[in-house]
Amino acid sequence: MRCSLCLFLAALFGAQIICAQNKQLLYDFYEIPQSLMVNPGVKTMEKWHVGIPMLSGLAFQAGTSGVTVNDLFADDGVDFTTKVREHLIQGMRKRDDFSTTSQIEGFNIGFRGENRPENYYSFGMYGETDIIVYWPKDLAALAFEGNGGSNIGRSFDLGDLSLRGEMVNVLHFGINRKVSNTLTIGGRAKIYSGIFQFQSINNSGSFRTSQGQNNIYTTSVTADMQLQTSGVEEIVNILDEDTGTTQKDLASLFIKRVLFGGNLGLGFDAGFTYQLNPRTTITGSILDVGFIHNSKDLKNYTLSGNVNNEGISVFLPEDIPNLNNNLWEDLVDEIEEAIPYEENEKGYISFRPVKAYGSIRYNFGEGSTFNENCGCGVNAQSGGQNDAFYRNSLGGQLFLMKRPRGVQAAVTGFFQKRLGRGFAFKTTYTADKYSLTNIGLGLNFQMGPVNFYVLGDNLLGYQNIANSHYASLQFGFNIISWNDN
Fold it and tell me: What is the residue range of 345's domain?
């Protein structure tokens, strides 16, 4: 299972570079066009926007819910083996994970309908990588401590092995519609092209060593485990060939799959913004409700069965003449027959990690109505006011994400301030499994038609990156034309 080892190591160490999918700073920051990507029903004010290709939306994040680099490698005089035992073997739980996500926009374009200005259309393409590896607590303890000594009689859970990952290119088209002065709704259709995917989820089984009857110990193994992969084997084969054209071959394969030559799938997003009153707004969205049909470049690995074995039994002295090297081979054959390891190329369906957002916002500090170039003809309230130009907003957000071991949640409180149309900032406090002290800051600059935004999370962690569980940076450039009605 060479590729499974490569995938596990890449996921484990890659998690120290990029992590988590919550975009709480971008959510409902409607001055930024990319806020449509986390809520298709967000308020829109622009006439049209064009993202700078490859620079309009980049998200890079980092973190781990368990151990940090500093926990293991700090020069504090503590033996490394002791650190591993305390922080990894004893300190981490089976629900702790190393999860990685990155996203890069190829292009992003939006425009308001000429005949129906209440509609705002957007389309584009982006690439996304998402990997999660749960900490295999029992398997790590088995590897570190062995199955002897105090572990005699302990049942190690093979179901602790759980990981999932994919790289996918997404082509999308969305419609944002202002239904009334209080309600805006939106939807987005997506076509997925999988570059690679792997998953080993819903595993079960146990490994147990106990006192034997005919021998010192007996080992009981029950396993129902599977690793499914698509798009991986061809990449591994190119790397294994190690020829002078390796980079060229990888680039050609990547481009082919990006241009919808990979495993295809469908999905959608939906969202809304509703004003309870001129100052109070609630929002909600659900993202990536979809699937990919994996039918190309498949390689699956299974391990299923059960066995009770007491090892090699030798009765002395009568068995001495019959001792030979086949005893060990017979034992291995017996175990392999009871728990066969097999490979197949069966297709399978993989579901995207569904995400949901919700928020409530209170606006205060009434500013100018910005009758010129403000989009009031589309977004105005009754009486001619536009709540987009309240100077301040205060509120809370909720984020939920479907993961192999349940729903991952985060709660955010935020404050946002606007200084005209040229500058706005949003500061957040977020609590989740990665950090309870996550303070973020987002800045949006509008210089004529040029829009630039930068969003940074967990700012306190930058004091010591090696000791931080989470860090994040998002930024991008757009060209925006505001409504002139």
Answer: 2-482
